[in-house]
Amino acid sequence: ESENTKDLVDTVQMKVQCCGMTAQGYLDWNRNEYFNCSDSSPSAEKCAVPPSCCITYMTDRNMMCGYSVQAMKESEASDIIYTRGCVTAIIQILESNLYVAAGVIFAITLFQMYVTHQSRTLLDQIQLQRARW
């Protein structure tokens, strides 16, 4: 994995307060070779999730806070890490702000229509003045 990808994933997980991508949430990290829970995994981070999934990551940078959470039940893990997937979290954010976003888009559209009308009116006045010369 590239550092840029890792940084992007960490930033999204911290800002959106999520862990993993799909509806499986934090269990998505089981597909990662470093965080895989299989018996054959030699990684010290086996069954863990990245620290950016931790609820207290911004206040307490404990790099081991997500260790072994994949082996826990979701109710236990939710005290330590964000368990919902990022796609689900982003959809929830968009749904909760739908009316605000629609209002902003509507206002911008009205403003653009007004400016277009004013520009057309000015152009017509310029052409009228030119015709008088």
Task: Please characterize this protein's 3D structure.
By secondary structure, this protein is mainly α. The chain has two domains: 91 residues, no CATH class; 35 residues. It is 48% helix and 0% strand. It is built from four helices and no strands. The chain starts with a helix and ends with a helix.
Task: Quickly list its features.
transmembrane, mainly alpha, 133 residues
List the helices and strands and how they pair.
Layout: H1 3-16, H2 74-77, H3 86-96, H4 98-132
Shape: elongated
Cα-to-Cα separation, first versus last residue: 69 Å
As a percent range, the share of helical residues equals 40-55%
The arrangement of helices and strands along the chain is HHHH
Transmembrane segments: 98-115
Keywords: Membrane, Transmembrane, Transmembrane helix
Subcellular location: Membrane
Membrane topology: Multi-pass membrane protein
Question: Summed up, what is this model?
Answer:
This protein is an all-alpha fold and 133 residues long. It folds into two domains: 3-93, no CATH class; 98-132. Helix content is 48%, strand content 0%.
